[in-house]
Amino acid sequence: MKNIDALAIGDKIVQSLKPSVFLTTAAEGKINTMVIGWGAIGVMWGKPVFTAMVRKSRYSWELLEKSNEFTVSIPTHDMKEALKICGTKSGRDIDKFTAAALMPQAGQKIKTPVLAGAGIHLECKVLYKQDMQPENMDKAEKERWYGDGGDWHTMYFAEIVASYED
Predict the structure, then answer these.
(1) Secondary structure of the chain as H, E, C letters
(2) What is the CATH number of the domain that holds 38?
(3) Other Cβ atoms closer than 10 A to 105
(4) Alpha-carbon gap, residue 137 to 143, rounded angstroms
(5) Which residues form the domain of 47?
């Protein structure tokens, strides 16, 4: 593993979100990974931070609420099939790691694993979380993304405690 400065490659991380990256979390002996296409990287409270949004309906949300930590694995090679599986199936119903031929690998500083061989990894500990408030959102964006009026996201602001590539 080669340690990297996540903020120094922030543009690369943000560009990777457009097609999708993996967010993994674990709690009580259970592990799940999901696909995210929204997020941000920056500095808050004097620390490098990754902001992730997870819908309350997701299995990962249940685990994240218990663990308060997650990893982000950013593919640096073709992982389209694994992204497709992890982005369309629920960890409640299948073992995504088996279905997508993914291998969890122990993190350096947190209990949640990264995805072995994915490329770039961020280990994140939640500093603050906030449920989205529908009344605070721009009307057009609310209609576009939450037209049915439900399944709002929780925003997790997490310190990047380790960042590296394999």
Answers:
(1) CEECCHHHHHHHHHHHHCCCEEEEEEECCEEEEEEECCEEEEEECCEEEEEEEEECCCHHHHHHHHHCEEEEEEECCCCHHHHHHHHHCCCCCCCHHHHCCCCEECCCCCCCCEECCCEEEEEEEEEEEEECCHHHCCHHHHHHHHCCCCCCEEEEEEEEEEEEEC
(2) 2.30.110.10
(3) 17
(4) 10
(5) 2-165
Shortest CA distance to 82 belongs to which of 21, 16, 142, 3? 21
For the record, the structure tokens of 127 come out as: 């500093």
Overall domain count for the chain:
1
Give the tens place of pLDDT for each residue, 56-103: 999 999 999 999 999 999 999 999 999 999 999 999 999 999 999 999
Q: Letter for the amino acid at 97? A: F
Residues 86/124, Cβ–Cβ less than 8 Å: no
CA 101 to CA 97: how far, in whole Å?
Answer: 6
CA dist 66 and 28 (Å) reads 8
pLDDT, tens digit, for every residue of 122-153?
999 999 999 999 899 999 998 998 887 778 99
Give the span between the Cα atoms of 32 and 112, in whole angstroms.
10
The CA-to-CA distance between both ends of the chain, in Å, stands at 5
pTM beyond 0.85: yes
